[in-house]
Structures
1.
Amino acid sequence: DAGVIQSPRHEVTEMGQEVTLRCKPISGHNSLFWYRQTMMRGLELLIYFNNNVPIDDSGMPEDRFSAKMPNASFSTLKIQPSEPRDSAVYFCASRQTGSSVDYGYTFGSGTRLTVV
Amino acid sequence: DAKTTQPNSMESNEEEPVHLPCNHSTISGTDYIHWYRQLPSQGPEYVIHGLTSNVNNRMASLAIAEDRKSSTLILHRATLRDAAVYYCILRNTDKLIFGTGTRLQVFP
């Protein structure tokens, strides 16, 4: 199992540009989560999906952020337009819900976003 | 979400046991106690979880107080690779909400 795969690993973009972060969850996992980590605010849950449906997006900072999950094997987090304060490490995680055994959340290696 | 309190940092020597405490005095009956750790430049990693009884796995042990208002993550023999931030999290929904955690330093 390759785990949760995120791309790109690093992204540097100019303020005002559109940024798209990608995530491939573990096959068979039916819940997907997007987190953001900064020194000031720590790890913040942005949005999560169950069975490809957004369940809770209360952590999304503002309308510039949007997330989609068109199918069970792919999700995107888009920032348009990007701002320097969006610079952070963005993590994707997946989990299998409804199982009698809880193996926890599996996180990807993250995308380090720098907006200049 | 019920709140947890952890020390900001702890230190250990290699090959010694480490006891990482967590207080959660407002825990509810349906809250599971989860522990994750984050190694430098990596995403968080699941360590262990429990509800009422003590739990063991290949990574660590989880000791839960009888009143469930506190718990302790036990690393039986710390290695340099165990240096990380350890998060104690209460969860009763799909959401995993992280606090500030305990930064563990391991010295050779």
2.
Amino acid sequence: SQKIEQNSEALNIQEGKTATLTCNYTNYSPAYLQWYRQDPGRGPVFLLLIRENEKEKRKERLKVTFDTTLKQSLFHITASQPADSATYLCALDSNTGKLIFGQGTTLQVKP
Amino acid sequence: KAGVTQTPRYLIKTRGQQVTLSCSPISGHRSVSWYQQTPGQGLQFLFEYFSETQRNKGNFPGRFSGRQFSNSRSEMNVSTLELGDSALYLCASSPEVYGSEQYFGPGTRLTVT
């Protein structure tokens, strides 16, 4: 069956360091992959979208890579700040309009 | 532009009752999706509507239904509520048919007692 896996354990890092979050998937051929941020009690907020024919995408301090051979996406936040503390969700779509989300990874950036 | 709005924000219902949740997408967005979020299952896809037609459906029982109106506003209905239906219900709208980011509303927190 289709499966999306994100680090279930919280990621704790020091302010200023680079946070790297992982999203692995199986039995899936996504046309594109998205990353969202969710704060407690709020709806997810879109961050980045990367298509299957793209290897890397950047937006300010954010970078996402997409390796369809390894079936993996990495999400990086450089120069992390306490305000980056949140849960980060990856989501996949096979170009059907149906987004499937991972469970999310909670990031805690300590000052 | 105003964001996605959902009403009500909070609801408490009793087992066996039914509930209707409402979603107003961002102006100009014709695709509306609904999700259920619980601590145990995470964010799960319920269904997606485009131009008043349900295009996709997740793995939920028939008690969960929805519809979309000509102005793109959407409603979802849950009949014969069960305790396990307690969750945050999120609506999201999208500007494109496929391959586009989704804009989420604040959600409706449903508690079934």
